[in-house]
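Thread: "does anyone have the structure for this chain?"

Original post by V.I.:
We have the sequence but no experimental structure in hand. Need at least a predicted one for the grant figures.
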Amino acid sequence: MKYELSKHANDVLLRRDIDIDWIDDVLSNPTKKDVISETEMHFYKTIIEASNRCLKVVINPINEKIITAYFDRNMRKKGCQ
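Reply from O.Q.:
Generated one for you, tokens below.
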């Protein structure tokens, strides 16, 4: 999947030390995917290189933009694989 980073997403990747390759991995091989609405989808996957934390990537599938990405502590507790 190829998505463009929003300005916000680009800023948070730098601040949160999230590798763009991890984003690609989550979008290509998510362990969980939630369709919130036609303009918002959430993708999840555990990133081994990031101490097994669960990375959440939020996208807008209509304009093919990554809205944000962050390590979601709540999903890790709920079994993010």
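V.I.: this helps a lot. The radius of gyration is 12 Å.
O.Q.: and The chain has three helices and five strands.
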